[in-house]
Structure formats: C-alpha cells, structure tokens
Amino acid sequence: MDSFSCRRNRVVKDGRKTSVVTFAQRRMTSPVENVLIIGAGPCGLAAAHALSKVLPRDTKIDLYEKAHQLDVPRGAGLGMTVNGLKSLRAIDKSVFDHLVDQHAMIIESVNYLDPLGKVLRTEHGEEMNRKQKESYGLHGVQVGWFELVSTLRETLPPNVAVHTGTRFLRYQEEENNHGLINVYFEGQEEPVHAGLLVAADGYFSRVRQQCVGDGHPIFGGNLFWRARVDASLAQKFNYKSGHSAWYFGDNRVALVFTISKGHMVWTASCPEAELVDAGIDWKTVTKGKEESSAMSSDFIQRSMSNGEDAKHRLLKVFESFDQDQLLQLFKATDPTAIVEHALYVRPASDLRPEWFGKGRVVIMGDAAHPMRPTGQGVNQGLEDALQLAKCIQEAGGSFEMLDRFRANRTERLRPIMMEAETRGKAAYQKSAVAPRYDTAVASKEQIQMNPEDFEAFLFDGADFEPLEVQA
C-alpha cells in the first residue's frame, strides 16, 4: 500500500532549517519532503490550515501564488453559507471566530426590486437567520473576499510558507523516488520536491490541464461587473448598511450588499444575448484574461487599466435600470475599482472523480468544479479543504484516502452543481415578486430537489465535525 509519511531528517530551504519527523502511529513509511499547494485563494489557504492539523506538526507546507501582492483589497464580497462556515469552524475554530467576530456582516433585510427600482418584496433577515440557526446551529453571513483571504493568510501556522510572484509551470512524478513529485516554476531551473501536490489555482488551472487534460472550462454565457466601494458612497444613494438589494428583470441581475462596516459591494450581470443587443463582443472583452482568476492581482491590474471601457459597457447594458439609485451608484464608482469578467463553468453532467486529480495530485475549488455563482463557489472550496484533511486523517495517511476523497466529493458536488446550473440560469428570467426563483422557467426534471430539501442537504449533508489536531 502506498502511504503518506515523513522520515526524520533536517533540510535547509531558503536559509531556514525544517525538521521532518517520523509519524509511527499512522504507519507512514514513504518519505515526504513537503506538501505543495498551488494558489493562495480561500481554498488553497484553507487547505494549508486543514492539512497542518492532520499531518505531523513538522511537515512543511509550501503555498505558491503567482500574484506578487496579497494585501490589496479586491472587488468582491461573498455570502458565507452554513456549510462553508461549518467547514471553516471544523478546520480551525479560532480562525472561524476571528472572521465572524471581526469581519462578518449579518443580513438585516433583503429587498427585491424590479428594474426601475420599485420594491416588490422584502425578506427580513432576523426571521431567516433564526430559522437557519434553529435548524443548523449557524446562519449565513456576508464577508469581503479580501477579508476572508487575509484572515486565512494571517493565521497560518508556522510550518506553512507562502511564496508570492511564483507561477506554476509543470510537474513530473518520480516513480522511483519514493513517489515524490518534482514541481517546476517559471524562472526557476531547479524543481521543488513534494509528496503531495494540491491544486487550488482557479478556473484555468495549469495543474488540471496537465493532470486531467480535459481542456478549459466553457463560457457560461454571462458577463459580470463587480466593485467594492466605501459604504458612505453607497449610502449617498440610499443603500443602507446591512440591507441587501436585488434587482431582477429584462434578463439582467444586479445586487448591492454589505461586506463590512465600512464597505459595500455591487455586482451586475447579464446573458450573452443582452451583450449582443448592446453591441458587446464578450470574446473581445475577455481576450488575454483567460488564465487569470477574476480576483487575482494580475486580473485586477488589467481591469483597472480597462476600467473606463468596462464602466461604459456596464452602463450601456443597464441603461434602462433604476436611474435614481443603481445607475447613480454605478456612475459614481471609480472605474479602477470595477472588475469585469466572464463566467466559466464545467457541466455537472460531466463531473467525475478525475476532476479532483490523480495519484498524488489533488485538484480542488474552482480548479476542480467551476460552477454558476449561486453562493457555493468559495463555500464548496472550504468543504474541499476540510474533506481532504478528514480523508487523510481517517485513512491513517494511506493514499487510498485520495481516491476516497475524489469519490466522496463527486457524489456530494453533482447535485449541488446541477442545482447551480438550474437556478443560475433561471435567475435571469426571475421575477422579483417570486420567492427564490420562478419555477415556471425550470422544469421538474431540472429541479433536483425542492428548496427545503436542498437546503438541508447543503447545510447538513456532510461531515462537519472538527478535525483532530495531530501532535
């Protein structure tokens, strides 16, 4: 049986001494110099936290990120749903507590508006949060993408090193060298050796291209605009902190919501047909950005230099929308703060265990399962990190745990991705009057579960028990 282990030795890397000790309790016999993670987004950072809990304390974990800077606030917020919060809490409760106490915002209300800004329906956050907490022990919150990443990065344990400005090139498995992997980076002649390679490098994962070889994800049919703005700016147009505003109609969707005490985020999107009507060619807009995550620093830099053009396209697509609030907020937003990107997905019907890697290569997060944005992208990435660590821990380090992880995640993700496809597409035909989404635009065959059953499956359908910290 192939196994994941460490032997006692002392190596010098970057001028630092690193101890690697034998972990006899788990019967690990193969030498592992370190674990190597590609991508320092939420998923990669969470994986570093989780693996540091279940592997011997002296196992070195190196995290490589192509971005040069990680401390620049970027233009997205996200809803952390119950399953994502449970995953983070199970990985490290102190990190969970810090994020929730310092950065999370509780939704006080959600207004659903028509394109002209008329409020057609209101959901009160207190009632929604109470029901979720009664059913699942937690309720969802809103946070900034930057705040989540910063919290995860700043709380990394000492055995995790982050290397920035380093772009993954390729890897080579050494069958006769204890199963180790040689990982090559651009501009570096010598490889980095790893016993386990974890790819959390986004939609256009280079690791996936080599490991799975199934090409790039496909264009999901939508273009998005996002911006992070000071709460004071949004408040000038009567958007209140803690209160979200959803606009639905005319095959367009927009959202304004709070991510911190001082910041709000707006997002807007439309299908390809509306872009064509507005004379916008999405291929031209996204050309040259394909290998960048929408939140990566290199993508942000390109977007900043193209901000005026992006803003012009946004205003053209949404010119018929709420003139008093939404368009005024768009117009008042600094163009350099606007991030414009296309949606890329992989069909749920194609999902198979190989999407999560082969052998000693594990693929996770958007690299493994890019899906429509229905609130589960980052949350499922956190689940990936937790469940990988659990499989390693429960299998005593055997490499059989990697196949178990892949099988479990495939079974778990398939219905979630199918629901994301159905509900994501339905959103553009949704009425602000209808709760959740219009069932008229989705057949019973397309809807895998009713909303209540799906929520229970999503929030309670996995093992969210805390990891056992390894001595």
Automatic annotation (TrEMBL):
One of its GO terms (molecular function) is monooxygenase activity. InterPro entries: FAD-bd, FAD-dep_Monooxygenase_BioMet, FAD/NAD-bd_sf. The keyword Oxidoreductase applies. Keywords: Monooxygenase, Oxidoreductase. SUPFAM superfamilies: FAD/NAD(P)-binding domain (SSF51905). Signal peptide: none annotated. This is FAD-binding domain-containing protein. It comes from Chlamydomonas eustigma.
